[in-house]
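Practice problem 4.
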């Protein structure tokens, strides 16, 4: 085992000696509470490009990177740009690689449950934009399957059910055992708030901007597995049974 800070390339010297493949889901959390004010470019992009450089030096055979599903509504956000800079680095590197692109993974909705327990949840827009969120296990299986493939792949991964954002919030109220009370915030207000936050707290500004844009647009990918968000939120975030992502599904969606 090698411990290091991927934003500091000096700590990665020799870390990949003898390594055949790398799977990276490294990145700063998409959270509204962050003591680290560094932007996603200064964390996600820098850290993953350092990993990529170390992988090149060690002549690693394959690199699998967990990015995010891209859509026009948010592809110009700083969060998305940081991820796509890593994808471009992979393309330029010459290393055989796969980019796994999930929709929102279940843990990103964890904060809705304590908010629901407090009695109210705020969401941007009308709440009618759709997504099919996915369990991290399904994403992990997609990464394993991508390791076993050849060639450069883009692998979108979504969960088994399509939900509106309001339906997701209502699942959080069910998990909390509370009557739903939902406040809809104008998207423009959050975007404006992100602009004002940028000089003071770049990370929080980027989280706010991405949230405003992503939660008010459809965020859909081919389905995988059987693990459902309502079950995940309702059982204290205990993982359900494992479900393999079929190789055929990956081949169909790349």
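Answer key:
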């Amino acid at each position: 085992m090698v411990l290091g800070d991927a934003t500091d390339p000096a700590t990665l010297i020799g870390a990949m000696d003898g390594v055949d493949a790398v799977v990276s889901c490294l990145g700063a959390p998409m959270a509204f509470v962050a003591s680290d004010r560094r932007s996603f470019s200064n964390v996600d992009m820098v850290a993953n490009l350092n990993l990529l450089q170390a992988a090149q030096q060690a002549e690693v055979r394959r690199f699998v990177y967990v990015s995010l599903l891209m859509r026009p509504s948010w592809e110009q956000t700083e969060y998305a740009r940081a991820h796509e800079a890593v994808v471009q680095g992979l393309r330029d590197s010459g290393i055989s690689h796969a980019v796994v692109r999930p929709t929102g993974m279940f843990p990103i909705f964890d904060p809705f449950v304590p908010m629901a327990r407090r009695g109210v949840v705020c969401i941007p827009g009308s709440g009618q934009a759709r997504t099919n969120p996915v369990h991290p296990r399904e994403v992990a299986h997609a990464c394993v399957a991508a390791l076993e493939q050849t060639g450069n792949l883009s692998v979108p991964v979504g969960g088994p059910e399509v939900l509106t954002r309001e339906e997701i919030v209502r699942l959080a109220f069910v998990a909390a055992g509370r009557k739903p009370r939902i406040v809809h915030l104008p998207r423009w207000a959050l975007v404006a708030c992100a602009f004002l936050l940028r000089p003071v707290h770049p990370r929080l500004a980027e989280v706010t901007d991405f949230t405003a844009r992503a939660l008010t647009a459809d965020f859909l990918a081919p389905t995988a597995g059987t693990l459902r968000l309502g079950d995940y939120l309702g059982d204290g975030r205990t993982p359900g049974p494992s479900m393999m992502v079929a190789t055929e599904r990956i081949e169909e969606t790349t």
